[in-house]
Amino acid sequence: MRAIDLSTITWRKSSYSNQDGGACIEVSDDFPALVPVRDSKDPHRPALLFDATAWSSFVTAVKGGALPGA
């Protein structure tokens, strides 16, 4: 597997992140097949990479209230 350079991508804060600085994630829309996700409180740690289809399913489940605690 080849390394993916995330040093120049554009990050956006999740609309589900709260405003007081806790529970914040950032995602990038710069890749068509992958969704990089990172903790906005610790942006220098490695990002997690998700398949775009899997990420879309996860977001749909969160929005629909299908996940416990969501």
UniProtKB/TrEMBL annotation:
<feature type="domain" description="DUF397">
    <location>
        <begin position="10"/>
        <end position="63"/>
    </location>
</feature>
<protein>
    <submittedName>
        <fullName>DUF397 domain-containing protein</fullName>
    </submittedName>
</protein>
<dbReference type="Pfam" id="PF04149">
    <property type="entry name" value="DUF397"/>
</dbReference>
<dbReference type="InterPro" id="IPR007278">
    <property type="entry name" value="DUF397"/>
</dbReference>
